[in-house]
Amino acid sequence: ALSSVLILNGPNLNLLGSREPDVYGTASLQNHIESASAAAAAHGLTVKSLQSNSEAELVEAIHSATGTVDAIIINAGALTHYSWSLHDALRSFKGNKIEVHLSNPSAREDFRHVSVVSGVVDGSISGFGGLSYVLAIHALVALHAS
Ligand code: DQA
User: Fold this and answer.
1) Per residue in 57-76, pLDDT tens?
2) Full-model pTM
């Protein structure tokens, strides 16, 4: 059953709104979390969220997620491209997992073309700005409805 979702955000995502607005838009991370929480609430789901600039804190949050939440939505920021610790931690989490990005990393610099997270999640949603988080909620709801 799906009743709670943890939304994790990695390095620099606390700067959303002021960071490269041409790439990431002008809305804050809080705005995106609120939109995703509203979409989740419409389906009776509760959302917890954590943003951290620390890889260790994100790894520990994934450990704590087991038995605490039913699913994880993660935007790992630049850690997406090289964090095998996050890869292994996500591998250990039993519930559904969705990778999200505001931008479309495949359309950007070469170093963003590899995700070490993609192989250990159910699927990835990229390129829709803050809507990527909302779409991830809808994907989880749809996965659990079928
Ligand atoms: C990002 C894409 C990453 O390449 C980048 O390092 C980020 C944000 C995104 O949401 O588009 O920090 O994950």
Assistant:
1) 999 999 999 999 999 999 99
2) 0.97
Q: Ligand 1 centroid vs 1 CA: distance in angstroms? A: 30
Residue type, 71: A
Residues in contact with ligand 1 (CB, 6 Å cut-off): 12, 75, 77-78, 80, 101-103, 105, 112
Determine whether 101 is an active site residue. yes
The mean per-residue pLDDT over the stretch 93-105 comes to: 98
**82 is a catalytic site residue:** no
Which residues make Cβ contacts (< 8 Å) with residue 57, sequence separation at least 6? 50
Distances (CA, A) of 26 to 69, 71, 74: 30, 27, 20
List the structure tokens of 81.
């491209």
pLDDT at 32: 98
